[in-house]
Specification:
By secondary structure, the protein is an alpha/beta fold. About 35% of the residues lie in helices and about 20% in strands. The strands form four sheets. An eight-stranded antiparallel sheet has the order 3-2-4-1-10-9-11-15, covered by helices on one side. Helix 4 packs across helix 5. The longest helix has about 35 residues. It is globular and about 80 Å long. The two termini are about 30 Å apart.
Length: about 650
């Protein structure tokens, strides 16, 4: 996820911004840049330096070609649109080169806007969505200048014609930068937190927010902008958290807040008492908990710009696989590891249901031992894009002539470089070793892929597409609701079950991979032995394990509108009865409004209703929180469990 640091005040700005960006490094990034103005020699000169890779590279550039000034903005970029190169690094300029923008988020309608701007003569230098924001602001300034010139001509004529006295009409002033920003952001759809500087309006820094966080720091005669508190906490503890739909104008004499219409907002700073480490975790005790809570945004950012609520169509411009291949493909083979493999298992149900394409799901480490039949489409799922086993599976696929797609969270990683097509999961960097938000983002990406394949292969009607897209768009809010409603209950259950020696997780159909994921989360961070099982398999052996000491988490959700889902639910209820009959202690994950199940089991956790293929994104939340609270209760190192690494780069 990108980092932003901006400053206006009496100090030399470059070291201050670079230090702030360094304090945001934990967010992850792959290039960096800075724009600076207000030097004593040339106060209106606005200069930019950028470099791919880590901040050290930018510092080298700044040593070779130093910058001086007293206001500016810096940025660390986590690539989404376009590779992590110098050209794609922020800040981005408008056509005149006198206005720069840094941006955190995704502009959903950037292709359309780019076309419109190109038709109006704008030329672009990068592959990013951000660059269009600079051009849009320039466009608004241009439009205002034109309108003002027209109005001036008319007024001057009218004045001369209507009055006997000569009146000196002062030349029309064009709109100020902040007004152009307000007008430009209203043309954007998607998510953004931006910082803007213009050489034409010195001593001013404009920020706007809709989605990703942005904070304003209030110092003594100095003012700060950052994407996150740690970037400025060492300078000020008086912070205003910019609200969605707000613009802040930072000058040397203070900060003015307005909404996107220009109406002033009264904002009072909040005193932040977090220490720097707490601040990196946004006040959460662990990165894992922060990342669990970031899932609504991860899902929203993964689907933004890829689905149309109007038409129900899915757009995956980076797939690069011909429609005829997609229509004729005989099978799909998914290879992945760990949590990503569980996402693949859930994806199989989505793709087979919506696209009628048979799917095999392999552990990436096992793929090479198969002798696959040609004609398949390969799909690698990976958070890091650097997992050695998954890279090996990809190479094996490529060597057999299988075209590969990747669902990946890191643009420019090894797997995305080798893949023919990529769907990025825009979950932002995941720091906790236990994968959480990357998983839900993978499920969202798989759902969009399944729907896309269904549309390309002609198995999903327009009405069905619209329904699915509409339901998908509701998932972030449902995730928010789930996070709010289940956390206390999971913490309470953790007290009861933290001393368990073993745990079972059960599910049927698409819910079985979620049972596997629940078991993996628990074992990796709490070190309790846990197994995931298809609920129907219990009677074929594992029932022998059940006694009054065994907690059994059972996913028993249903979509009442879907008869197959209801049937599955009923069979799961029978399996639950088999467990309770043997004194097993059942924790059921059920759909809201389901009171029947409460009569059968000791504990019920309710989650919102959704179509069956979307339920996994919601079901996993209580399982993540249960694992988290149990691990905390047992005093385990939640973010860095023993013997595990975030990125497994050995086979
Ligand atoms: O980066 P990847 O998604 O390829 O990583 C795969 C697994 O190593 C990873 O999902 C692992 O299982 C997680 N620690 C689970 O929480």
């Amino acid at each position: 996820m990108c980092g932003i640091v901006g400053y206006i005040g009496p100090k030399e700005v470059v070291p201050l911004i670079v230090e702030g960006l360094r304090r945001l490094e934990y967010r992850g990034y792959d290039s960096a840049g800075i724009a600076v103005a207000g030097s004593a020699q040339n106060p209106s000169l606005l200069e930019v330096r950028r470099a791919p890779g880590k901040l050290g590279n930018l510092e080298k550039v700044l040593l070779e070609r130093p910058l001086h000034g007293t206001y500016g903005i810096g940025h660390t970029r986590w690539a989404t649109h376009g590779r992590p190169t110098e050209e794609n690094a922020h800040p981005h300029r408008d056509s005149s080169g006198s206005l720069v923008v840094v941006h955190n988020g995704i502009v959903e309608n950037y292709l359309l806007l780019k076309q419109q701007l190109m038709a109006r003569g704008h030329r672009f230098a990068s592959e990013t969505d951000t660059e269009i924001i600079a051009h849009l602001i320039e466009d608004e300034l241009e439009i205002a200048r034109h309108n003002a010139a027209d109005t001036n001509g008319t007024d001057a004529t009218t004045t001369a014609a209507n009055t006997a006295e000569a009146i000196v009409v002062s030349p029309p002033s064009s709109i100020p930068l902040e007004e152009a920003v307000r007008r430009a952001v209203k043309r954007l759809s998607g998510a953004f937190a931006i910082g803007v500087l213009s050489a034409r309006e010195p001593d001013k820094l404009v920020a706007a927010r809709s989605g990703p966080p942005a904070v304003i720091g209030i110092g003594e005669g100095e003012y700060f902008l950052a994407s996150d508190v740690p970037g400025i906490l060492h300078h000020t503890r008086d912070i205003v958290f910019l609200n969605d739909g707000e613009v802040a104008v930072l000058t040397r004499s203070g900060v003015l807040f307005t909404d996107f219409e220009g109406a002033p907002h009264q904002r009072t700073p909040q005193r932040i008492t977090w220490d720097p480490i707490q601040a990196e975790k946004a006040g959460y005790k662990h990165f894992m908990l922060k990342e669990i809570n970031e899932q609504p945004r991860a899902v929203r950012d993964t689907t933004l710009g890829r689905v149309s609520l109007d038409s129900g169509r899915v757009y995956l411009p980076d797939l690069h696989i011909s429609q005829s291949f997609l229509q004729q493909a005989a099978t799909m083979t998914i290879a992945a590891c760990g949590t990503s493999w569980h996402a693949g298992l859930a994806g199989k149900f989505m793709i087979e249901r919506l696209a009628r394409l048979p799917v095999d799901v392999d552990y990436a480490s096992e793929y090479r031992y198969r002798d696959p039949i040609p004609g398949a489409l390969g799909l690698l799922i990976t958070q890091s894009g650097e997992t050695a086993d998954t890279i090996a599976a990809q190479l094996e696929m490529i060597s057999k002539g299988t075209p590969t797609l990747a669902i990946c969270n890191v643009v420019g990683s090894a797997i995305t470089r080798k893949a023919q097509g990529v769907i990025t999961t825009n979950a932002g960097p995941e720091i906790g070793v236990a994968s959480t938000k990357a998983f839900t983002a993978q499920l969202a990406a798989l759902f969009t892929l399944a729907l896309y394949l269904g549309q390309e292969r002609g198995f999903v009607t327009e009405t069905q597409s619209r329904h699915y897209v509409d339901e998908l768009a509701r998932i972030p809010q449902k995730l928010e609701d789930t996070l709010r409603s289940v956390d206390d209950q999971c913490a309470h259950l953790a007290k009861e079950f933290s001393t368990a020696r073993d745990f079972l997780f059960l599910g049927r159909g698409i819910h079985y991979p979620i049972a596997l994921e629940g078991a993996l989360k628990l074992k990796e961070i709490s070190y309790i032995h846990a197994e995931g099982y298809p609920a129907g398999e219990m009677k074929h052996g594992p029932n022998a394990l059940i006694d009054e000491t065994l907690p059994v988490a059972c996913i028993a959700t249903k979509d009442p509108a879907d008869p197959a889902s209801v049937l599955k639910y009923e069979k799961t209820l029978s399996n639950i009865q088999e467990v309770t009959a043997r004194s097993g202690r059942v924790i059921a994950i059920a759909t809201e409004g389901d009171t029947e199940i409460q009569q059968l089991v000791e504990h019920t956790i309710h989650i919102p209703a959704a179509p069956e293929l979307l339920l996994p994104m919601l079901e996993v939340v209580p399982l993540q929180l249960l694992a988290y609270h149990i691990a905390v209760k047992r005093g385990c190192d939640v973010d860095q469990p023993r013997n595990l690494a975030k990125s497994v780069t050995v086979e």
